[in-house]
UniProtKB/TrEMBL annotation:
Gene3D superfamilies for the chain: Fe-S hydro-lyase, tartrate dehydratase beta-type, catalytic domain
Task performed by this protein: Catalyzes the reversible hydration of fumarate to (S)-malate.
Family statement: Belongs to the class-I fumarase family.
Subunit structure: Homodimer.
Protein name: Fumarate hydratase class I
Enzyme class: lyase
Pfam family, one: Fumerase_C
Amino acid sequence: MAEADYAPLFQHGPDRTDYERLGDGGVVRERWRGRDWLIVPRETLADLAAEAFARSAHLLRPSHLAQLRAILDDPDSGDNDRSVARALLHNAVIAAAGALPLCQDTGTAVVIGEKGEQVLTGGEDVAAFSDGIARTYATRNLRFSQLAPLSLYEERNTGSNLPAQIEIAAGPGSDYRLLFVAKGGGSANKTFLFQQNTALLSPERLRAFLAEKVATLGAAACPPYHLALVIGGLSAEQTLKTVKLANCRALDNLPESGDASGRAFRDRALEAEVLAITRELGIGAQFGGKYFCHDVRVIRLPRHAGSLPVGLGVSCSADRQTAAKITAEGVFLERLEAHPERFLPELDECVAPAVPIDLTQPMEGIRRQLATLPVGTRLSLTGPLVVARDKAHAALSERLAAGGTLPDYLRDHPVYYAGPAKTPDGMVSGAFGPTTASRMDGYMETFLAAGVWPISLGKGNRSAAVADACARHGGFYLGTIGGAAAAIARDHIRSVETLDMEELGMEAVRRIEVVDLPAFLVIDDKGRDFYRDRAPTAA
Ligand code: SF4
């Protein structure tokens, strides 16, 4: 290709990030062969990564908090949207104190960088960033979530939250630009690739396709979401990487029209249309309403004539990404909001009262009470819960299949799908929000048939098979607010003890005592499903 034909694919406009200068970072500028070179100590990279992940575990962007506040200020918001927005703002205030992180899933650490060719670091950038990430996850009340495969089937927690996903590209100049992202598993699981073709490129077909796919996202990744759609891409990988960057709002300043070079652009008209679609889904901010999404980004990319990849993804209520840069002026990190209380109105809102559920009564009594309530009923749970998630379910399922005796805790108490972060000194519990319930769907028929955990508590929607199993065996599924893990820990958990499988770390089986834990009746023993009935197209 002639040089004149080349144009950058991503033509970023000016960087409008509000940065805070952390210091000089020991950065030295030297002039050699007529050019300025930036010499950056290895430790500066480690310190920057450590600081970025420490801050983003506790602090959110002011723009994200303003969007939560806008839900409270919108006269058209329903009670459920408001109560979730208020809970998330309250959670942000608790997390900002620096002890409990925003969410119990403190994420996979992702570092995306562009390093100017005149930046000299010694070449161990990935190791340096990893050192900083490991330091933060070890010394703060975060959670180790990464599993190392020891063989095809055996896994062990790495105990450091490493490995991190670190991708550094080369660029011109003498600046180092970075984006640090802490991505939770539930949020990452809502990234999708659809291999389409030219037939999709008509306004009606594209709208219908997007409406169908957006509805399938469901509520498991803790809405309200920042939603990103990418149409086109030179490869599947490029499409999905672009989804990730758009979710981080790192492509907000792209041009708003295409040109013959194939440059990427934002389509604001389609963004508005898709946002309107999300408002009609009925899922809302987790339990019905219109605030399924805060906003939508649509990016159009060039493509091969024979393929049309379409990418879809979300950033969840733990909207954790922090831009940074290292220049001759020093080390800079995006300013996050240290005082989220300024977004939270002082007066308590009026929301519909919750039905108190006494979990200290025998299981039959709890089931009888739940059976009298319509799905969508607000609940307030007080008493013991057993905590278990993926690995405990797999182990118990094997015990059940082998005909082994099962412990009483499987039948006496409801199960809460969760895995906490570390407990801060002087506190009863680490951040302790719900995990995605649908990952346990495959066990439900067998467990319910065996009388195991007839009541479950988690987040998000579940498969039709779970509703059917609940109808057959008298089961119930309750949802609690996802993304409010610091508030759940501080305001609603009174004790935590390990019951079984301690070796599983954050996935161990625990017994907790809760007080006034907010919940919703999502699926009842007649097979009625709050999400399916409100949003028939949502899976
Ligand atoms: S807010 Fe929800 S989806 Fe996001 S990291 Fe936390 S649990 Fe996962």
